[in-house]
Specification:
Blueprint (H helix, E strand, L loop, with lengths): L1 H11 L9 H4 L2 H26 L3 H31 L13 H8 L12
Helix pairs in contact: 1-5, 3-4
Length: 120
């Protein structure tokens, strides 16, 4: 799924049809941190699985706590980012002028892409 989203991003990154570019919509540092949280949490989840299979209770709890903390950090950053967008006037209606909205909607599980017409 992630490879499909990255491919869609690579194809659509320049085709904004007059709408804002991704760099104008998203804080790139925040996106990098969110991505790192997801990737590292996938690793720690795998390590937790190995610890469960090896019946290592302390390691299982350790990796579970780390995975939970990374997931909580991701959710915090994501909610903060959406709150910032809403504060700037972005609404959640279909916006065909912003092709980046389709991969964004798929990644966030939204039914319709956001409307960036009010974005500065």
């Amino acid at each position: 799924m992630f490879s499909a989203l990255f491919a869609a991003y690579a194809v659509l990154v320049r085709g904004t049809a007059g709408g804002p570019a991704g760099a104008q919509l998203f804080n790139q540092v925040s996106v990098a941190i969110e991505t790192a949280c997801l990737l590292v949490s996938s690793y720690t989840c795998g390590m937790m699985s190995l610890a469960v299979n090896a019946r290592r209770r302390l390691a299982t709890y350790f990796f579970a706590v780390i995975t939970f903390a990374l997931g909580a950090a991701f959710l915090y950053l994501e909610v903060r980012e959406f709150a910032e967008m809403i504060a700037h006037g972005a609404t959640h209606r279909a916006a065909p002028s912003c092709p980046l909205s389709s991969p964004l909607s798929a990644a966030t599980g939204c039914m319709s892409p956001p409307d960036w017409s009010g974005w500065p």
